[in-house]
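lol ok so funny story. i was supposed to be doing the assay writeup but got distracted and ended up predicting the structure for this chain instead. priorities right. anyway since i did it might as well share w the group, maybe its usefull for someone
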Amino acid sequence: MWRIASLNSMGNPNWCDAIRHKAERFASADSMERVCMLRRVLFRYGIVAPVDALLLLAALLVAGILLLFRPVIAVRFGRLPYDRIGHLSSNTEWYLRHHQRCPGRRREYPLLVADRPVNSQLANMIRRRLPVVESRVLLRVYRLLERHVPHLSLLVRFNEEGYGRWMEWNLVSPQLRFSTHEEQAGNKLLDTMGIPGGASFVCFHARDAAYLNQAHPWRTREQWSYHDYRDADINNYLSAAAALAQNGVWALRMGAVVSRPIHSLHSRVIDYATDHRSDLGDIYLASHCKFFLSGSAGIDRVAMIFNVPIAAANGAPVGFVGGWRRSDIFIPKKYRDAMSKQPITFREIIDMGADRWLSSEKFNDAGIELVENSADEIRALALEMNARIDGTWTPEDDDEELQQVYRSMFPPDHPATDYPSRAGAEFLRKNRTLFE
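and the output, tada:
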């Protein structure tokens, strides 16, 4: 135990709280979960338990047989990214679209393993396209192979989401389909919420800490805080929702777990996350909405895999902000000095490498605060997207020049230089000094 505590303390000053949290979980867990927890500890520190050693040996024997038959039938073994809605949707969809776009690789036969998926509806739709087995034993086998023979050609890796891989997202149609029964259930949900048949609706969401705290409790709040820089206040989205509602578009607040309900005076703004939420509803609504007004969370990837346009607010870090389709628009968070509260230009952020930081700790150590988009900025983004879809958007004379100036901030080999999406027009007009 001292050895484990010492290793944890090297990267986590609050390791005592982490150990206490794990001990409490271990004490309250059933026997199967305790075995899994012990195995995870052994695995983390490079110790292969006897059972795992036998599993690895058997897996290597099977892998050898499959490699012999690979010229005839290409069976591959992979882990479905089951535990986060963003990865379950976009990583899997990219895999399906890529194989649709590259016919020469269609003879590949993947066998995917998973634990309990984060969304049962999405998992069922994936199973209609790919063989998926829910098995902790097979999942363990995959992780052993990935750790000890990481370059094994039999392994399928779902890590090709989109950066620099725009063809799949812009040229290939969605690969998942709803059944007739699921479509009927989705229409019934709309009726339950009072949305008339054929009416337009928009989904909106802002990331907060509630989901990870509840759905992934094996880490403490302190341990999950490394992505807190992505969080945003849902109340800053309500002005956009009300503006859309006044234009006849229903606005549905999304989220599997949310920190608090919303309060809107407009009848066409609905807190679906608090009052109507279901696994089917999450997927059906995101796939059928006019567009998705997002806030740096994985749920908007569900809309993306069905080719629903995304208006992405509160993007961070700025180097990874941008949509993967031509239909998307986005606005990033701003940066400022934590002490003086003075704004830091995007060019300064890029020069210091902070445009690619993926940890709250890095920003805190550098004395940098990320500033959420204001309600006015989010409303302008939503109205721009709505007008673009309706064909009523009227650009100003220098809008295209501002887009090019924004892109020119980044080095030529930076992923942000060739995103197919656009930065929000109003945001660029009012924040020229941050990127010129």
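Residues 180-434 form a domain with the Rossmann fold fold (CATH 3.40.50.2000). The radius of gyration is 23 Å.
back to the writeup now i swear
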